[in-house]
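Quick one from the shared queue. A colleague (R.T.) flagged Protein pleiotropic regulatory locus 1 as missing a structural entry in our internal table.

Convert sequence to structure tokens.
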Amino acid sequence: MPGVMASMEPVERQSLKKLTFKSLKRALDVFAPLHSQFPPPDSESKKMRLSHKISLEYGGIKPTLAQPQPAKQKSSAPSDPLALPAPEDGQRGGAHNALVVAPAAQSRQTEVGPSKSNALISTPSSSERFSTSALMERIPSRWPRPKWRAPWKNYRVISGHLGWVRSVAFDPSNSWFCTGSADRTIKIWDVASGRLKLTLTGHIEQVRGLAVSQRHTYMFSAGDDKMVKCWDLEQNKVIRSYHGHLSGVYCLALHPTLDVLLTGGRDSVCRVWDIRSKTQIFALSGHENTVCSVFTRPTDPQVVTGSHDSTIKFWDLRHAGKTMTTLTHHKKSVRAMALHPKENMFASASADNIKKFTLPKGEFMHNMLSQQKTIINAMAVNEEGVLATAGDNGSLWFWDWTSGHNFQQAQTIVQPGSLDSEAGIYALSYDLTGSRMVTCEADKTIKMWKEDETATPETHPLNFKPPKDIRRF
């Protein structure tokens, strides 16, 4: 035992500083950031990969030395024209490379017949042979170029409400429009002069939705008091009330061909009412949060709803109001939707983006090319293809429907005495001609907009860049 102890070497004493440096070195070797980095690219492997790609793409074409043609072939018309010669640096070396058709490719051409395009590309030089630019095909952008549109300007400000103006609807004759406000009143205004014609009272909470029937002399209103009312415009009074919602009603729409009314609210249900009998036909339940936007069509899908649960649902009224499709492209609440008056497409707005979909299947088209970066409360599109979106911060953006290009960004101006936070826009609508637009705002005013007649493409040029890629979400 003493002999074993004598044969062992004594342990070298190390200072605490040296031991600390050893521990740091081990930790650096284990957790060094270089482990997550990729190794530098290998030029040889890159050349091999590109040469393999070239052989796959141009298997029937091979570079050969150009041989002088006999005099007989010069006089006769060539059946397969050769490619263009290589650059000048190849000619200086004594021989230039040309691309000729391989024998297999020649026989294939003689069997099938003359090809549509006999033009062949020239062989790249030795420095350009292994670059991807020789394989890339440059194609022009297929994105539709937007049509030039005149900017819109505010030409009239109407005051009369004592609270936030939350809803707007136009008369089918285009002679007046009505607005609903947080002061619990509905006011009717003259379109041409902007003068107040009538004030209707009946709600006990703010009026969030309005619609005027094109087939009857009726106007429908909905509000936070859970009430949906039908107004007779000949007698200027309520003739029907629709009871059934368990909370505030946020939106309503009229079916274009049936005597059917649709309302959506905080109880996460879109209810279908018979206008005359006041009975509830269907309760379209399936959303998990507030139904805040709805529009109807004469064909399938007859009802489209948007909700705070960031989904859009298509409903079929012919089969007991069952869900046809659910669109889950948005990430935030779908507060506004707009149906194109001519095309079978619609747009939906959320805080993340504005998206276009086709009807009736709901296929996703594309996002708008800019982001408004605010909560979008309302949107509308006219027959000319001008889409307007209104935000919670007072921003009013105008878009070209076909291309998704944002050609104007306007900012509403609050009334003197109002707070800057009262610049929000809660509702907007075009008149029947599409040449005028009305916005309902948080500063208790109603603003009317129209196109600027003095604008020209020279004074307001179209700055458009086609997108490189369109994100789906």
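The two ends are 77 Å apart (CA to CA).
The longest strand covers residues 152-159.
Added to the table.
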